[in-house]
């Protein structure tokens, strides 16, 4: 059915739970996984005449985001290894996480995008599900949205 599944993560508890479900799904199908972390592009400070010395350079920012990407994707890589699921991890930079997710899925030959939703409605869905909604609008491949019934850590 599906041979290569793109699983997205932003390091949050919601995306970690979703990624675990995505790995289980991939294992059931015998599919491989590409796990993706998308960081925003570097932003030069605006409205200041002198850049503060504590403000990171573009190279420092990119290195920090690459490290964050490795940290956020490592749990998925480890989970795949335990389950015998072939996995590749990557971090990417783009102003629109949704656009990058769709682009990476296409470039890497993924046939499914697996991502999470908070399960909220109304304004909560509008504010917190915007990346998922944009991926659903722009993807040409199927998108499986894993909805969490309750927030991680809640009773």
Automatic annotation (TrEMBL):
Chain ranges of the UspA domain: 1-145
CDD domains named in the record: USP-like (cd00293)
First and last residue of the signal peptide: none
InterPro entries: Rossmann-like_a/b/a_fold (IPR014729), Universal_stress_UspA (IPR006015), UspA (IPR006016)
Family according to the record: Belongs to the universal stress protein A family.
Designated name of the protein: Nucleotide-binding universal stress protein, UspA family
Organism: Duganella sacchari
């Amino acid at each position: 059915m599906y041979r290569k599944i793109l699983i997205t993560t932003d390091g949050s508890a919601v995306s970690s739970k979703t990624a675990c479900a995505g790995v289980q799904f991939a294992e059931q199908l015998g599919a491989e996984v590409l796990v993706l972390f998308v960081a925003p592009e570097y932003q030069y400070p605006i409205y200041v005449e002198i850049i503060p010395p504590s403000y990171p350079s573009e190279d420092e920012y990119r290195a920090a985001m690459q490290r964050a990407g490795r940290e956020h994707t490592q749990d998925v890589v480890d989970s795949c290894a335990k389950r015998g699921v072939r996995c590749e991890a990557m971090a990417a930079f783009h102003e629109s996480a949704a656009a990058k997710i769709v682009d990476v899925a296409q470039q890497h030959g993924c046939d499914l995008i697996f991502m999470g939703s908070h399960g909220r409605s109304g304004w909560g869905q509008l504010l917190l599900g915007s990346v998922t909604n944009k991926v659903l609008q722009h993807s040409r491949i199927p998108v499986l949205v894993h909805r969490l019934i309750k927030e991680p850590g809640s009773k």
